[in-house]
Amino acid sequence: MTATVEPEVGKSRRRKEDERLITGRTRWTDNIALPGMLHLAVLRSPLAHAKIVSIDTSAAKEAAGVVAVYTAADLDPEGAIGMPCAWPITPDMAAPRRPVLASDRVNFAGEGVAVVVARSSAEAHDALEAIEVEYEDLPPVLDLEAALAEDAPLVHEELGSNKNAFWVFDSAEAGTGGNVEEALSSSEVVLKRRFRQQRLVPAFMEPRACVVDPTGAQLTMWSATQVPHILRVMSALTLGIPEHKLRVIAPDVGGGFGGKIGVLPEEMMSVLVANKLGKPVKWNESRSETMLAAHHGRDQIQDITISAKADGTVTGLKVELLANLGAYNGLVGPGVPILGAFMFNAIYKIPAYHFACTNVFTTTTLTDAYRGAGRPEATFAIERIMDELADELGMDPVELREKNWIKHEEFPFTTVCGLTYDSGNYEAATEKAKELFGYDALRREQKERREANDPVQLGIGISTFTEMCGLAPSRVLGSLDYGAGGWEYASLRMLPTGKVEVTTGASAHGQGHETAWSQIVADQLGVSFEDVEVLHGDTQSSHKGLDTYGSRSLVVGGIAIVKAAEKVVAKAKPIAAHLLECSEDDLEYSGGKFTVKGTDSSTTIQDIALAVFAAHNLPDGVEPSLDSDATFDPENFSFPHGTHLCAAEVDTETGQVKLRSYVCVDDVGKVVNPLIVEGQVHGGLAQGIAQALFEEAVHDESGTLTTGTFADYLLPSAADLPSFTTDRTETPSTTNPLGAKGVGEAGTIASTPAVVNAVVDAVRQFGVNDIEMPLTPMRVWNAVRGGGANAGGPGGEAGGGLGSIDASGGAQ
Fold it and tell me: How high is the pLDDT of residue 468?
């Protein structure tokens, strides 16, 4: 009897890539050293808004080790080069040119004005101090509402306004729902709230870096990027380099969270300098440069109006956003709030919906995608106002959600935004989460503490969420004026010895692709996990792809691998029939083996690979190759969901917040590797909780970033976070053969409102209905003492300090 081979998909495999990553036996962009390589350092403006009167580089050119010093006049004398924006959300969207180096004006503190080229990095940075720049101050533009006033100073005078674009979705006009104004005017309850999404820094582990070698037949660029294929296309278009003469490599990349999705001025600058000198060059930034000049995330003002019947049935939702783009359009920055537009309705059957967003330019670092990209912002707003509505109606917040959510038997369900959710079971996830959390017992304890006037009050926060994952399909992205598709590419190469090489267009920066892809291929082709090698991040070995962002790696890139494997099997079948001397119709395929029905006569994919290599005995007309590729473009997004519950203790005498317990039950469809999923959820929770309690990028009244180091911009460590209780339910996606839904952003999307809801719930009896994030001790204390629900707003207290959370043994 043949032993059953345990499937790889579903197995908690330790990641293949971790051994080289954690032992340092790998190559980051900044590790790369080429013969004769020169080093770049960028002089950055200390001012947020100013005219450049003059730049004197003469002293810097004489400094030790300096090879050259360039300004915009040297690298782009015609002023023709501008960083690309791939998402013009409206035909009239304002698109000011973002230069490689500023020439006549700087528009945010940190914008580059000159670059030094030297024989070492230290010499390049030393020479920056010898460059003299004379500036003429211009008024900064910082407040989103003030920026839209008629007499407001302008970031870009040539535009005549600080408005970037105005984008609207209305369910009545789209034919997907009713009229919101009618719903608001006829409903028994109407509630309006304003929420603030503070500005965040992606704070990836590895700072940005770029190496360019112009000395070969191709120009080769190494970059710490999430998007090597997009970077190649955009670099070719931006600089006029023939695309086939440009090779882009993303080696191991130390995190991104959306922060490495851009096409950078520094990358274009490196290409220009390398070509000018004919020598390889390297640019790498310090941590402070990252926080100052790499793009930021979030930064929205959200005005939300919800209407309902007296029994809690929601009748309408109106959303008005102001979104801060910073000084320029990012690669996809203008479209980030538009992604959120389709998620404000979340898991609920909302019959009428109106969304309007105004994107605004300010003299701050530009914003772009940050983990979740629009969807965390939307989930925060709807989950916060659902809690507010529950309080208004005197209902339990879980009961209110259950009354309005889509029931499991109603799937597939077309939402008020026109999206079709294919599968889900919000009831099952919520019930499991409540059981793990001990929801009813905690509510009883909360009541007892309130009645006893305990100085430490208990709050319970809930967040139920769904998200649109797998940034695709291409037709939908096209309808939103996105500048690329949503497909993904993969190829499988069968080697003569039965080993497999996989090339994927999905470029990993910490997600564990090499492990998960190996598991998928092992099951599809019946080879061992160890016999699969995954190649990625190099446009020469993996020539085609759309890279990694938007939780699309598995549900798009992984499915491309499945499709390529199916083609390998299809190509092997006639060869197997020939070798086994039977009809193809008589063959069964399972686990990498072809068997003649009703017999024990069989052959494996590995046997066929060797026969193909020899090509001695193949059917007539069959080419000697099993190699196959596939491009997968899904017909729909995938829609993971979950329920997150948080218990927070708030010391009303000090404002200190302690997260007592955190439970989440997520449904991400079919799981390929539970260990990787668990890691993704934990990382996402850490980032979402950090937004709620710790992180905020703050500019002072002159536009200077005052949180430019980790001494001022607080990132929590593991010691500052609670232990998480995680679990899963599983409703497979119907839109892909694996049934997967995506998990990379789920924790970040759901956790922020769960924590804020918990803290507000703890102090609601003091008349508090909101506290602006991050919920620092001072802001919580001010709110309890009547200092205002939003006490300590923008420009106020910058960070939480290590006293902002006690995580059962963490910092106090």
Answer: 94
167-221 per-position pLDDT tens digit:
999 999 999 999 999 999 999 999 999 999 999 999 999 999 999 999 988 999 9
- pLDDT surpasses 90 at 343: yes
Contact 663, 744 (CB under 8 A): no
Cross-strand pairs, 316: 307
What is the secondary structure of 691-759 as a DSSP string? HHHT----B-TTS-BS--STTTSPPP-GGGSPPEEEEE-----SSSTT-B---TTHHHHHHHHHHHHHH
> Binning pLDDT at 50, 70 and 90, where does residue 788 land?
low
DSSP state, 408?
G
Write out the DSSP string of 28-83. -GGG---TT-EEEEEEE-SSSSEEEEEEE-HHHHTSTTEEEEE-HHHH-TT-----
Q: Which ranges constitute the DSSP H helices of 245-404?
A: 265-277, 287-293, 336-341, 375-393, 397-404
Cα–Cα distance, 264 to 275 (Å, whole number): 17
Whether the pLDDT of residue 801 is over 70: the answer is no
The CA distance from 644 to 747, in Å, is 9
CA distance 249 to 263: 14
Q: Which residue is associated with the tokens 């820094």?
A: 201
Percent of the chain scored above 90 by pLDDT? 94
Number of other residues whose CB lies within 10 A of the CB of residue 97: 13
Helix (H, G, I), strand (E, B) or coil at 319: strand
* CA–CA dist 510, 518 (Å, integer): 16
Q: Does residue 791 surpass a pLDDT of 90?
A: no
Please name which of 330, 316, 138 lies closest in space to residue 234, comparing C-alpha atoms: 330
- 281: phi then psi, degrees, rounded to nearest 5: -135, 155
What is the rounded CA–CA span in Å between residue 245 and residue 151? 49
Which pLDDT score, from 0 to 100, does residue 3 have? 45
d(CA 301, CA 516): 39
Distance CA 156, CA 653 (A): 47
Cα distances (angstroms) measured from residue 191 to each of 184, 304, 314, 317, 403 = 9, 8, 11, 10, 18
Which of 465, 463, 464, 466 lies closest to 761 in space, CA to CA? Answer: 463
- Cβ atoms 517, 529 nearer than 8 A: no
Residue 804 has pLDDT above 80, yes or no: no
Query: Angle, nearest 10°, between helix axes 777-784 and 746-763?
Result: 40
Which structure tokens are listed for 600? 């024990």
- Long-range interactions of 81-84: CB distance < 8 A, separation 24+: 81/238, 81/239, 81/268, 82/238, 83/238, 83/262, 83/263, 83/264, 83/265, 83/268, 83/328, 83/331, 84/234, 84/237, 84/238, 84/263, 84/331
Tell me the per-residue pLDDT of 746-767, one tens digit each, with 9 for 90 and over. Answer: 999 999 999 999 999 999 999 9
* SS3 annotation, 549-572: CCCCHHHHHHHHHHHHHHHHHHHH
Inter-helix orientation angle 228-239/265-277, to 10°: 60
List the one residue out of 254, 204, 250 whose CA is nearest residue 223: 250
Query: Model confidence over 588-619: pLDDT tens digits?
Result: 999 999 999 999 999 999 999 999 999 999 99
Token couple for 108? 């945010």
Residue range 357-377, pLDDT digits in tens: 999 999 999 999 999 999 999
The side-by-side arrangement of strands in the sheet containing 105-106 is 105-106, 50-56, 132-137
CB-based contacts of 484, cutoff 8 Å, min separation 6: 86, 230, 477, 546
262-290: pLDDT as tens digits: 999 999 999 999 999 999 999 999 999 99
DSSP type of residue 766:
G
